[in-house]
């Protein structure tokens, strides 16, 4: 088939670009070799038989059941393709931030029913089992003999893990655990793939041995027969029903009726139960929460990727769309030329870069801490937990706001399913809740910050990410200059100031006679604000420093663009938080006006590179799945082509006319 022509607007835009798009793509991927590898994987998947979505009825027209079956068909075929690839390639990078495997969005548009298998089930087996268990289970999980999920949340409790009700009671006479769901609220509820996909799961349950409860522990549990896939006796399993998004994730419920599993089904890397029922405690009981920390860390780079998809759609569409006529007798401008549109779009693109570099930094910190933990050194665990919590929480909330802004920037067409913005929206919004709900995680970081504040009052802090607190004691009002380093210091002063205020409020409540817990609750709005401010201090400092560092490794033309994006991100947030800066620095109205002017200058400087910047994300059309965002910009043709796929358009008159409309019309005549 002849290549379809690229829309003239995009041809012109691509000529304007001042930097080498391929150079930026390689930087985003982490090097030329990584870009080549990713493209190789994408080619392999896109060209594999049985996976193309091109000529299919769009899945939004399928029934709930058909949609699931279609997702399973594709996810299985995709797995076969990856299995073949793994025979000749190292695929251990699947458990680290990489865009290499995101081609799966080109196969299963929404969340795959296997997502929890690779995302949480396999990592939990790898990291929480003892070496014998790893040797026995991991090959089966990696080969999909065991298809698994992570079953922790219950109908009654998701946040409060110590409140989970599922019990695993050790019976030394048979050397088994008896799993039981004593109440309706103890039913597992939410795990992805649990409903009809998984035959195994990691179940988090309260461990009882010798009549003593030792708290929540993970167990590997078979729930379905490996031949027939029938639920095993004592297991009640099913699907929880339609949701805002995640339509193909196959989220399920699960109950146990005195269901027996062997003693060695408990994941025993950290804590153990011996044959006689003796309990051996973990070095740190929070190690059981390790998979959640791992996923929270990965979510930050995941969000950067989702922003790159949504940004590609909205920016390309904005270059193709013309609307209004500000100057009489002149053509309608591209909507991308409206400065308000640039304001909506460019911060989203800059945020994708900020999250990617911060997410990579967080991943490196995580890897280092986990290495230390494996040697028995837990010192950095609280700081890592505090960082992972606030970054996951704030980045997910920001990303959801940015994706919504991208959708709004596409006007009415952004509301179309075929734009793919609604599905991306559903994926990103869910991130605010799963893997630890926003407020709950912010309050976890606040616990750490309150301790850090107490430490800082003695003039020293042990952890580097809060060292700015000590500086605040020397000078609690930053002397303002409109420079990046002052802006970063400004965010640190705001964080320190808000931590101090929240801390003082907490103390005041305690001194007034309140229990610490009640005092905490009373101060919690301020504590969440303090966590957010701390997170902004981290995000602004790390993203700026990382982007500056990267700019020294590339050509001058690309370095200039990276610095513009990094500065835009800093100024955007300085302006957003101008009220806070006024409280904690000497910033003046004049400084703020100058920053506003600089912000607008940056929008103008970025404008010629808008298309180059999103082209550099290098999200293939097959992965973008969007009528509005394709590389060729044939927006209107695609919208019409997709509309014509509606089953309602298969006949000129729908039967409902004869059944309902005609009688209604006839009655009107009487
Ligand atoms: C192929 C790879 C792809 C990778 C991408 C994968 C993406 C997959 C995404 C798929 C989509 C959806 C999947 C969704 C899955 C889920 O949602 S699984 C369920 C997740 N659930 C949660 O996150 C529950 C949140 N709740 C908690 O974490 C805890 O209950 C909470 C921390 C809120 C409280 O725990 P408690 O035991 O009650 O602790 P507490 O008393 O408050 O604190 C005691 C102490 O411990 C510290 N602490 C808590 N957690 C940790 C931790 N993880 N690490 C270190 N320390 C921790 C806490 O700060 C306290 O310290 P302090 O010194 O006493 O203050
Ligand atoms: C799309 C999706 C996929 C999921 N996948 C899985 C999965 O695969 N496996 C799994 O086990 N789970 C999964 N979950 C469950 C998820 O982890 C929980 O929903 C999440 O941790 C929030 O817990 P919750 O639902 O109990 O919310 P709740 O804790 O009931 O939250 C409700 C409200 O109460 C507030 N609140 C609760 N506690 C406090 C507190 N201490 N202080 C202040 N405010 C508080 C919250 O801020 C929130 O506003 C999934 C959820 C979603 C949405």
TrEMBL record:
Species in which this protein is naturally found: Trichoplusia ni
GO biological process: fatty acid beta-oxidation using acyl-CoA oxidase; lipid homeostasis
Record-annotated Acyl-CoA oxidase C-alpha1 domain positions: 289-450
Entry's family note: Belongs to the acyl-CoA oxidase family.
Keyword list, A-Z: FAD, Fatty acid metabolism, Flavoprotein, Lipid metabolism, Oxidoreductase, Peroxisome
Official protein name in the record: Acyl-coenzyme A oxidase
PANTHER family named among the record's database cross-references: ELECTRON TRANSPORT OXIDOREDUCTASE, PEROXISOMAL ACYL-COENZYME A OXIDASE 1
Gene Ontology cellular component terms for the protein in this record: peroxisome
Residues the record marks as active site: 435
Cofactor(s) needed: FAD
Main location, first listed in the record: other
Acyl-CoA oxidase C-terminal domain segment(s): 484-665
Subcellular location: Peroxisome
InterPro entries: ACOX_C_alpha1, Acyl-CoA_ox_N, Acyl-CoA_Oxase/DH_mid-dom_sf, Acyl-CoA_oxidase, Acyl-CoA_oxidase_C, AcylCo_DH-like_C, AcylCoA_DH/ox_N_sf, AcylCoA_DH/oxidase_NM_dom_sf
């Amino acid at each position: 088939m002849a290549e379809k022509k690229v829309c003239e607007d995009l041809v012109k835009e691509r000529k304007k670009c001042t930097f080498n798009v391929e150079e930026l793509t390689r930087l985003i991927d982490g090097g030329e070799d990584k870009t080549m590898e990713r493209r190789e994987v994408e080619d392999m998947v896109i060209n594999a038989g049985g996976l193309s979505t091109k000529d299919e009825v769009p899945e939004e027209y399928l029934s709930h059941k058909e949609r699931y079956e279609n997702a399973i068909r594709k996810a299985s075929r995709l797995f076969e393709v990856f299995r073949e690839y793994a025979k000749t390639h190292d695929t251990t990078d699947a458990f680290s931030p990489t865009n290499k495997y995101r081609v799966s969005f080109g196969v299963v548009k929404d969340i795959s029913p296997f997502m929890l298998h690779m995302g949480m089930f396999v990592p939990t087996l790898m990291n929480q089992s003892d070496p014998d268990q790893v040797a026995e289970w991991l090959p089966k999980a990696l080969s999909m003999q065991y298809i698994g999920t992570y079953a922790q949340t219950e109908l009654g409790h998701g946040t409060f893990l110590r409140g989970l009700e599922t019990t695993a009671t050790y019976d030394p006479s048979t050397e088994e655990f008896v799993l039981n769901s004593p109440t309706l609220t103890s039913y597992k509820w939410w795990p992805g793939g649990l409903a009809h996909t998984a035959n195994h799961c990691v179940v988090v349950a309260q461990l009882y041995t010798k009549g003593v409860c030792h708290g929540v522990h993970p167990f590997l549990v078979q729930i379905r027969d490996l031949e027939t896939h029938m639920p095993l006796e004592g297991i009640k399993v099913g699907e929880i029903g339609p949701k805002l998004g995640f339509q193909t994730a196959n989220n399920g419920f699960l109950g146990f009726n005195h269901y027996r599993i062997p003693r060695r089904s408990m994941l025993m890397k950290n804590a153990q139960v011996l044959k006689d029922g003796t309990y051996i405690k973990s070095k740190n009981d929070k190690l059981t929460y390790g998979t959640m920390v791992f996923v929270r860390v990965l979510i930050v780079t995941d969000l950067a990727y989702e922003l790159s998809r949504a940004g590609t759609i909205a920016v390309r569409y904005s270059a193709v769309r013309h609307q209004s006529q500000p100057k009489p007798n002149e053509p309608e401008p591209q909507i991308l030329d409206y400065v308000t549109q640039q304001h909506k779009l460019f911060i989203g693109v800059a945020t994708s870069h900020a999250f990617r570099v911060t997410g990579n930094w967080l991943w490196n910190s995580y890897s280092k801490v986990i290495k230390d933990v494996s040697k028995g050194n837990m010192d950095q665990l609280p700081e890592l937990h505090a960082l992972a919590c606030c970054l996951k929480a704030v980045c997910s909330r920001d990303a959801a706001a940015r994706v919504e802004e991208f959708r709004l920037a596409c006007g009415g067409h952004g509301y179309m399913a075929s734009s793919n913005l609604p599905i991306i929206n559903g994926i990103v919004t869910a991130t605010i809740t799963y893997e630890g709900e926003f407020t709950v995680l912010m309050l976890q970081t606040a616990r750490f910050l309150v301790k850090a504040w107490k430490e800082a009052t003695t003039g020293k802090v042990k952890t580097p990410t809060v060292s700015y607190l000590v500086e605040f004691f020397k000078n609690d009002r930053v002397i303002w200059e409109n420079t990046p380093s002052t802006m970063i210091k400004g965010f640190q002063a705001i964080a320190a100031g808000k931590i101090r205020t929240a801390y003082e409020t907490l103390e005041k409540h305690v001194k007034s006679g309140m229990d610490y817990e009640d005092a905490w609750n009373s101060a919690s709005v301020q504590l969440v604000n303090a966590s957010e401010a701390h997170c902004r201090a981290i995000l602004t400092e790390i993203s700026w420093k990382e982007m500056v560092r990267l700019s020294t490794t590339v050509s001058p033309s690309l370095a200039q663009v990276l610095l513009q994006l990094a500065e835009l991100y800093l100024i955007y947030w300085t302006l957003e938080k101008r009220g806070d800066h006024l409280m904690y620095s000497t910033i003046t109205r004049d400084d703020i006006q100058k920053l506003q002017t600089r912000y607008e200058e940056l929008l103008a400087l970025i404008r010629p590179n808008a298309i180059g910047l999103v082209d550099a994300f290098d999200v293939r059309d097959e992965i973008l799945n969007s009528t509005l965002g394709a590389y060729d910009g044939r927006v209107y043709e695609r919208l019409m082509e997709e509309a014509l796929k509606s089953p309602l358009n298969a006949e000129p008159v729908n039967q409902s006319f004869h059944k309902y409309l005609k009688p209604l019309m006839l009655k009107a005549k009487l």
